[in-house]
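Ticket 4471: requesting a sanity check on a complex prediction with pyridoxal-5'-phosphate. Repro inputs:
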Amino acid sequence: MARLALLGGPKTRSIPFPPHPVLDERERKAVLSVLESGRLSTFVAAPGKHFLGGEKIREFEQLFADYHKVQYAVAFNSATAALHAAVVACGVQPGEEVVTTPYTFTSTATSALMANAVPVFADVDAETFNISPDAIEERISPLTKAITPVHLFGAPADMDRIMQIAKKHGLKVIEDCAQAPGARYRGKLVGTIGDCGVFSFTENKNITSGEGGMLITNDERIADVARLVRNHGEAVVANQPRTYSSSILGWNYRMTEIDAAIGIEQFKKMDQFNQTRNRLAKKLISSLSNMDWLAPQRIPPEDYSAFYVVAFRYDEQKIGIPRKKFVDALNAEGIPFGAGYVKPLYYSPIYHENRPFIYRHYRGAADYSPGVCPVAERLHFRELIMTLVCRPPATESDIDDIVSAVGKIIENKHELEAYNP
Ligand SMILES: Cc1ncc(COP(=O)(O)O)c(C=O)c1O
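Returned structure tokens:
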């Protein structure tokens, strides 16, 4: 009789992990109050305030700015939209380059393409999984205009070194904080260190508004241009008739009042959500610390991660089980884990056969060949395993199930010899 669920034995866990996001009466009431107000998007309907959005949007922005102690927060309908606006607002011109990590979500890089600029990929650090400052330096060219570090899985990138490099070369820094709201780098909230920071509120993020994004900055010009990009390039001036005239190329990246109302309620709970994430993630990491074939993402002790994801380097040689077999076995036990994250972005067809973006006057040498970022490749194709489940409303007993399942697989690893996917 097999013991492992993968081979027909009983599952460690037969019920799903608790559903996320956590929504309660507060979000419900907030949505109803917007419906009752009759204003779903004041951008269009209220005289005098079109450009800045409705009441809920402005309240959400103010809360976000106050929390981060920055002057400006601009809400968007996604982080992708906010990243694109950030690239434009940072003055990146067609054919210029933005250096970023290949180990991230697609729009960290495509936001440059949307401005006819060119992403250039710099490798990541093998232990923190975040962009390596040394690799950034190697990629700087006369065309480089900005750096977009990502605080991957909630853990801050090495911002001191990144800011030094930016200063030395006169570059803008756009922090992609989509996975890290409330995270701190050496005591400083992420998003407040670079020229601007961008957050995401899509459904599986630390806080959600359904869909949504936020850009924060202390630079008035970045805030103004970001608002223009959000609003068809059209600045509607308070108490003056609308001109329907666009100053710059803009889209409709506006958040709705309902999204903002949900975002406000979620934002009020963000610190508490992050504390739960930290508690659960640290419990998982410490419970697995005797397994020398698993190395958690390195988070320097002076930093605070938002633990969007808990990720480990898996050492196939040491444990003697191929990564895929191990992850399949965990999944079969009822424990959601993934092998790898997003394939290093330069593997996407968009950087090869489709290439819709190639700016015909581009004079640089961006390289999208396999092998350009070997550490990211090794992590993705061979080493990284990760889970999203250390988040509210999960509890310690949910984490105990993960630890039991890992222990069970190790005890019965001989059974996996019969499993050949
Ligand atoms: C690192 C990173 N950047 C950008 C985004 C894009 O966010 P959104 O889905 O809000 O556009 C995501 C979301 O998955 C992300 O993880």
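Notes from triage: The pocket of pyridoxal-5'-phosphate is lined by residues 78-80, 104-105, 107-108, 150, 176, 178-179, 200, 202, 213 (CB under 6 Å). Leaving this open until the requester confirms.
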